[in-house]
Amino acid sequence: MESYERHLITHAGHPIAAPLSDASVDALLAAALAHVPDGAGRLLDLGCGEGAWPLRALAARPGARAVGVDVNGAALAAAARAAEGAGVADRLTLHETSAAGFTSDQPFDAVLCVGATHAFGGLLQTLTSVRPHLAPGGCVVVGEGFWERPPTPAALAALDAVPEEFADLGTTVELVLEDGWAPVFGHTSSLAEWDDYEWHWTGSLTRWVLDHADHPAAAEALETATAHRAGWLGGYRGVLGFVTLVLRAAR
């Protein structure tokens, strides 16, 4: 099964590809665009996938415009269809290119990179790369993992990670501050949000297998769902955290 097909299936019931509830997403978007009056604003989502964040922002702000960037053509096609269905296609522009390679001649009031900092090589590299995209007073919304507690061997194995890959929450925020950013809002995902995300991820893929038992990729998909669920429940559940920060440049 191609990775893009798996992504579309695993996120069918949870379009936000991160452990965030709908209420949390709305609060983060409101904080990111609080400085923009009259329901307007320009938003850029780097690593937008199926466009869940831009679509949510455009639905709530009738004067807003958004740009989504992703290397996944199938996900972008799904985003375009969703935008048509929501009646916001004329306000959403999609680019099939790398997040790190995207350029624009216009700045943005909010730049999002939630759960996609790997595209830039890490959190601080992401912040360096997105800074030129920001309009004066604009906000970055960045979502990043952190260690809730020291990672266990089981957690590291499930995530294919090393201890240095993430810091704890306090150190993560300190790194952002030292890099010249000021947090104006943030959300630390709860265990319930994590569970909801993971049950949707594994459950949607398992449901697809049951409904497509004759598909050539069914066995691979079932193995993926089983391994993912085991790695989450027996490895990183309660160990890996996720924080989404709304940042403004302090210098």
TrEMBL record:
It comes from Streptomyces johnsoniae. It comes from the Bacteria. Residues 44-139 form the Methyltransferase type domain. Keywords: Methyltransferase, Transferase. Its EC number is 2.1.1.-. GO terms for molecular function: methyltransferase activity. It holds the Pfam family Methyltransf_12. This is Class I SAM-dependent methyltransferase.
